[in-house]
Structure formats: structure tokens, C-alpha cells
Amino acid sequence: MKFKKTMLLLTALITAFSASACSSNNANNSAPSASSSAAASTQAAETGEEELAPEPNAKLIIWEGKDEKPFIDAIAQEFTAKYNIPVEFQEVPSTEQRKKLKTDGPAGLGADILVMPHNTLGDAVASGILLPNDFYAEETKANYPKSLVDAVSLDGMIYGYPRNVETYLLYYNKDLVKKEDLASWDSIVKFAKSYNDVANNKFGLMWQVNDFYYNYSWIAGSGGYVFGANGTDPSDIGLNNDGAVEGMKFYQSLRDALPIKAVDATADVKTSLFQTGKLPINMDGVSQLGNFTKEKLGFEVGAVPLPPMPNGKSPISFSGVKAYYVSSFSKYPNAAKLFIHFATTQEAAMKNFELTGLIPARNGMDSDPKIASNEVVKAFTDQIKNSQPMPNILPATQIWGPSTASLELIWNGGDVKEILDKSVEDIKAGIEQQGKNNRSISSIP
């Protein structure tokens, strides 16, 4: 215990020194917040307490999407009852939080706690809007798979507090298609071709053909990749190697099963067709878990992980790690960290699952009977094991435009290798320009 106290005290002193250094370079609220965080950490170290001491008169704002409101409201009520710290929920989609905090944070209007996808971490850290996950870092590493911890870390520093993993698989209408018809892509294509009735807007299979997030699975499953060194080396781009070409040729062949323009396979169209019984097989994400139920649709929904491709390899889906983050503009960083700790315990994670259907990411929770006994949820936990977190470094922001643009060209029958080569050239140019822009900004006194 004495050694542990000493290490906590040392960590607190380092944090305080870092906060002091930052305050000389940044004229915002992060310096006082970090200092108060260090003071409370020091207090915890000296007393041997494992819990952060929240700032006096703390009050918190958390940004999150509307689907999570039932859980946030419930856990906030418990937290307030225990710590006497009010928590206000404000509906802000996760995709908008980073941009909003950049403007609202300096004005003192931003949230204390964010919930963002991990692939935005590089930009968020470069923008200076997040505080590290310091006090609970070791606990985070102990309770979550390394791949998830890496996803919410940058340059060896943990920033996020993992909550759940989002990926995609095949939902299917049990009244229209048998599970055995989804055992392989050959059988799926065969079924779809026999079911399709384009004139009446009926299709056996559909997914967002024009969205790189969903179609990266063919590339990764065949040996392609975004960046080398597990997504950390932007000088090594694998989106036009032999595996990527093979994967995109398979993607191109699927037009036989879905004879429509790429731009017509939108999320809204696909969801509507599935809900109205005109689409038996729907590739979609975990966010639809609460919507695709017998109670809401009138038919029983099944789900299976993405089956093997004709080359025998299984598609590797992209995944996003949703995590809590503490704003660097927060006046109450200790209280914010304490709330996140409270909201991510095993008990809280199960409550979240029960209230919202959100699948916990903590180690071992996939074997809980409430999760393992649910066919659709179990299919997602299996797919997650065969998924790959999106890169989170800043250059990764340059992959989406060129890669998405290449999809329609390939879908329309273009030369796969030539299209992918051009896409990679555009990605490299974007990364180079991004680097020049960052150097120009950093050179401003």
C-alpha cells in the first residue's frame, strides 16, 4: 500500500507539473482544471483512497445522443444521490461533439463529458480539447481488451474510457430467408438473385454500397489495410495492395446480387425496405439493435456475422470504439472522471444494456447469460471479435473522401487496380497537405 501511495503521489506531481507547463501555452480553462485535478489526486494519494475527490460545488454537463438518454438519466440520478453532484444531459450527436466543443469550450459553454467514436481522437488531441485518462488508466487497461485501450490512446497516452464497440453484420427476416442461406456469400448471392424484383423495389440483400465504412470489410478480409503498424504508420498505405484489389473485385461482383446504382442503396432506403418486409437480408450496425425487434417490426429478426468470402477468408469489419472523454475546458475534471468511473462499472454497463441495448465492452461480459442467450447480441459479440478498429491518428481523416469516391467507380465496373491506385495517390496528397497546414499553424507565434 505504501508503494501504491507513493506512485499515486508521483503521478499527481507529474500531472501538476504538466498542467503548469500547459497553462503557459494555452489561455483557457484547462490549466486551473488540471491543477485542481492534481490537487485531488495528491489528496487521494496521501490518504490512500482509491477514489478521486470531486471539486467543491461541482456540476456536470454530458453530451450524448438521444438513444442513450434513458441510461444517462438513470445513472446520473444514482450518481447525484451518492455524491451530491448534479448531472445535466444535453442531446448532441457523437459526430457533432468534437466540432461543437472547439467553439463552445473556450466560451465556457461546452460539456464536461463527451461520448465520441475513437477514430476522431487524433483531431481532438491535436485540437487540445481533451484531458488524458490518467487516474483510472491502470483500471482501464485491466478491464478492457488491449485493442480497445489502444483505440482510445494516442502516442502512448490513454485519453478515453471505453464503453462499447460498434460494428455491423447481417440482420435477416426469419419469415423470408433461412439461416442456412446465409452460410456463405455464394448462397447469399444465389438467394438474392432468386428473390430480387427490381420493378417492385424488392431486393434479397442490401447494404450501403457507397460507404467505405461498410465496404472496408472486403479489403481487410483479403489482406488489405489502411495504415501499417496496426494503423499507426501513414507512410505505409495498404488500400491498393494485392489483397485490397482482390477484396474490391469481390465487392464489384456483388452487383449481380444487388442490381442498382451505388448511390441508391442509402441507409434510409435500406432500413425502410427491411422494416416493410421487402428486404430479407440487411447489412447494418449495432445501432439498429433496439429498432429491429419483433415488437416493432411484426416479424422475428435474426443476425449472423459476415460469412466467408469465396476465397475462404472472412470479411473483417471496421469497428468504432465509443468512449467517454473529459473536456480540457471542464472546471470540474475530477468530478467528470468520477462520473465516468461510476457509469462504466460492470453493474452500470449491464444497466446500460438493459435500458438501451448497448453491448458492454468490458472483459468477460459477453459471457453473461443475458447477453450470450440473445441470438442477435451474440452474433454481434462474435463479429466484434473479427473486427478491426478504425485508425485514430490524424492522417486517417484523409482516407474517407478518396476511398468513398472509389466505390462508385468500382461498382460501375471500372478497373479495380487503377481506381485504388488513384485513391491512394489522393490519400497521400491529402496527408501531405494536412502536414503542411499543421506546420504552418504551429509556426504562428
From TrEMBL:
<protein>
    <submittedName>
        <fullName>Maltose ABC transporter substrate-binding protein</fullName>
    </submittedName>
</protein>
<dbReference type="Pfam" id="PF13416">
    <property type="entry name" value="SBP_bac_8"/>
</dbReference>
<dbReference type="GO" id="GO:0015768">
    <property type="term" value="P:maltose transport"/>
</dbReference>
<feature type="compositionally biased region" description="Low complexity">
    <location>
        <begin position="25"/>
        <end position="45"/>
    </location>
</feature>
<keyword id="KW-0813">Transport</keyword>
<keyword id="KW-0732">Signal</keyword>
<comment type="similarity">
    <text>Belongs to the bacterial solute-binding protein 1 family.</text>
</comment>
<feature type="region of interest" description="Disordered">
    <location>
        <begin position="25"/>
        <end position="53"/>
    </location>
</feature>
<dbReference type="GO" id="GO:0042956">
    <property type="term" value="P:maltodextrin transmembrane transport"/>
</dbReference>
<dbReference type="GO" id="GO:1901982">
    <property type="term" value="F:maltose binding"/>
</dbReference>
<dbReference type="InterPro" id="IPR006059">
    <property type="entry name" value="SBP"/>
</dbReference>
<feature type="signal peptide">
    <location>
        <begin position="1"/>
        <end position="21"/>
    </location>
</feature>
<dbReference type="GO" id="GO:0055052">
    <property type="term" value="C:ATP-binding cassette (ABC) transporter complex, substrate-binding subunit-containing"/>
</dbReference>
